[in-house]
Amino acid sequence: xxxxxxxxxxxxxxxxxxxxxxxxxxxxxxxxxxxxxxxxxxxxxxxxxxxxxxxxxxxxxxxxxxxxxxxxxxxxxxxxxxxxxxxxxxxxxxxxxxxxxxxxxxxxxxxxxxxxxxxxxxxxxxxxxxxxxxxxxxxxxxxxxxxxxxxxxxxxxxxxxxxxxxxxxxxxxxxxxxxxxxxxxxxxxxxxxxxxxxxxxxxxx
Length: 205
What we know:
Strand order of the largest sheet: 1-3-2
Number of helices: 10
Number of strands: 5
C-alpha cells in the first residue's frame, strides 16, 4: 500500500462497510482471485447484505465470531470452476467432502469452520482452496505446519514464488485503486461494474 492510499484510509471512516469490502476483498472484486474473507462487526451484517445484494457480489456467512461476522465473498463461476478441478476434488474428498454439489461444499465448509471457531479444535485447512489458493501452497502449509515457506503475503507460498509475488503486487495495486475510488464517492456496485464482475449473482446468505 502506497503512502498516499494509507493516508486516505486514515482520513476515512474505517467502519464504513464499502471501505472494508474493498480493503478485504479487492482481489475478488477485480477478478484476480476466486474469493476473500470479509470480517466486520456483527452490527454491520445487514449493511453488508444490502451492499452485496446490490453490487453483484456473492456472500456466504460462515460464522459469528464473538462480536464479528465472517463472510466468504466470492465470484461464483470462478469458485465453482476451481473446485471442479480434479486435483481439488481429490483433496476435498480426502478431507471428508462429497464432491457432487457446490452448495454442499459451502455448507460442509461452513460447518467445519464454525466448529473450529466455537471449539478451537481442528482448523479446516481446506479453507485455502475455498479462498482459491494454489493446491501446492495449501498442501505445503499443512505438511510444514505453516513453516518453511518461500514467500509470505496474502498467504504462505510453497510453490512458484516469483509468479505469486507478481500476483500479490496486482492485489495491492487494485486495492489502492479501489480505495481511491471509495474516497471519491464510488459505490461498490460502480466499482464492481468497472472491473467487469458478473452482476447476476444472488444476495448474501
